[in-house]
Amino acid sequence: GAVVSQHPSRVICKSGTSVKIECRSLDFQATTMFWYRQFPKQSLMLMATSNEGSKATYEQGVEKDKFLINHASLTLSTLTVTSAHPEDSSFYICSARDRQGGLEQYFGPGTRLTVT
Amino acid sequence: AQKVTQAQTEISVVEKEDVTLDCVYETRDTTYYLFWYKQPPSGELVFLIRRNSFDEQNEISGRYSWNFQKSTSSFNFTITASQVVDSAVYFCALSEWHAGNMLTFGGGTRLMVKP
User: Fold this and answer.
1) Chain B: closest CA distance from residue A105 (Å)
2) DSSP of A33-65, one letter per residue?
3) What integer pLDDT is reported at residue A99 of this predicted model?
4) CB within 8 Å: A112 and B44
5) Disulfide-capable partner of A50 in A71, A102, B9, B54 (CB 3.0 to 4.6 Å)?
6) Which residues contact A1 (CB under 8 A, 6 or more apart)?
7) Chain A contact present for B71, CB below 8 A
8) CB-based burial of residue B1 (10 Å sphere; 0-12 exposed, 13-18 middle, 19+ buried)?
9) Which residue of A has its CA nearest to B108?
10) Cα dist. B25→A16, A46, A105, B73 in Å?
11) Looking at the partner chain, which of B33, B42, B102 has a beta carbon nearest the beta carbon of A46?
């Protein structure tokens, strides 16, 4: 149980274009999902917290107009990187917390974004 | 503020050696949770253990063991008889109850186990 999927697993896009990453909880409902970014050989940094039906909460230094988050249902959150640039190339990981409570964050397998 | 420090950025051992990964944390909360995750080259995080601040009992799971000491704010992870498949980046993480249990990750320790 507690499986989180991400799609796509890898994406290459051209500079200036937008790319959408999906995060789904497959066997549970998640009121809260988290988006992390991980640059090569670095740790995971929380970008934003996504709550179903409300606006996402962004961490300091993360541009909300660039990284659009939509959590439209209890099983799906999307992260759209708008006007992507090479410096946005990174590994994006989502996690989800079960609606029924508990502390665990269940992590997705990650999406590797390369902007050329 | 919460902070997690993994002072060892890279460790290299030979197979069958024991290895300990250090984790030191800072928190003002009395209720908090500590985690260890493994990140193999594929990138997917693998949950290893969670400990709450009220449970200092050490834990052993197969070749893995964890030593939680509140007196030194440490939560160290030992792999006994390491294997090549243990090669990965290991992250220690902290969440504070009063901070909504948001995870703060340490910098990670890259473990390389050589045959």
Assistant:
1) 9
2) EEEEEE-TTS--EEEEEEETTS--EEPTT--TT
3) 78
4) no
5) A71
6) A27, A28
7) no
8) exposed
9) A43
10) 40, 18, 19, 6
11) B102
